[in-house]
Write a structure and sequence with these properties.
Blueprint: H1 2-8, E1 27-32, H2 42-49, H3 52-55, E2 58-63, H4 68-77, E3 82-86, H5 89-96, E4 102-106, E5 114-119, E6 134-136, H6 142-145, H7 147-154, E7 162-164, H8 171-176, E8 182-186, H9 187-196, E9 204-208, E10 219-224, H10 225-230, H11 232-251, H12 253-263, H13 269-284, H14 287-292, H15 299-313, H16 321-324
Helix pairs in contact: 1-4, 2-11, 2-12, 9-13, 11-12, 12-13
Protein name: Thiamine pyrimidine synthase
Subunit structure: Homodimer.
Domain SsuA/THI5-like: 39-250
Amino acid sequence: MQRRHLMLAAGAALSLPAIRPAAAQAAPVRFALDWALQGNHAMWVLADDKGIFRDNGLSVKIDRGFGSGDTAVKVAAGAYDLGFTDISTAVKLNAENPDKRLVSIYQVFDRTAAALITLKGRGIAGPRDVAGRKLGSPEGEGSRMMFPAFAKAAGIDAAKVNWTSMAANLRDTMLAQGQVDAVTGFLFTTYFNLVGIGIPEDNILAWPYAENGLDLYGSAVVARADWLEKNPQVAAAFVKSSILGLRALLADIPGGMAAIQKREALFDTALEARRFAMTRDRSILTPNVRQHGIGYLDMARAETLIRVNAEAYRVANPPSAASMFTDKFLPPASERQV
């Protein structure tokens, strides 16, 4: 099934309208996001709008995504040169498709956003209380697949958890309606989806995996290994531009939200500014990044991510950390300090 998806992936993207015309001699780059435009994506929109890509010799076509798994498959299939995806999706994919191996060249999210989320009044005051309760998530979704590892780290009796499966777009509504007692998912996605359907913020309780014993890397810029071998300068220019775009966003969040709204008229700038602030504080500017710099790569953490995902997806021949992570396309450490 994985191989068939790789064969069918080319050409299945919805393009976002470009704001700036491509520079005459710029290297063309096809880049896929992980989802529809959200606040953190403004780092790349600003890199485009402010001419950062152009100044670094790139003409980047940014397309929305349809989930991290879909983006990873499309980059592996060659439909895109680069993608933004939860790096955990690459473990199983690389093991099954070594000739289409994906490599993380910039860890944008130093910590995974996966979390256990519930509402007050459900009898869950801490992670361990989810035992014996109804826990909901789409079947096969990353946060659900990693839950056994989180349960072990957080002291949860995973055998007593009763799972309910649903489509991703129904998860938050089912939690709000009491059809499940708690859910797993990306913190900043589910949290603000609940806010958007009228749940008071004081009623939302959440325990991010990374802050409760399972400190894994999150979403990253990825490319195929063979593409990187042929385009090292383009890859380095894209990473540099991405970091400069992130700096521009950190300096002017309202400006970043306004830039996205130019491309997506229904974009909620106020809500997305708050979503980005949570993403910034919980996944991007972590204590580790503040100490070592943006994109800092710790191979021991990379090995832990591979091991946890190999166990979750029952991968018998997991890829090595060295084959799946690299920091050689990052700018010098002096340019990555925060």
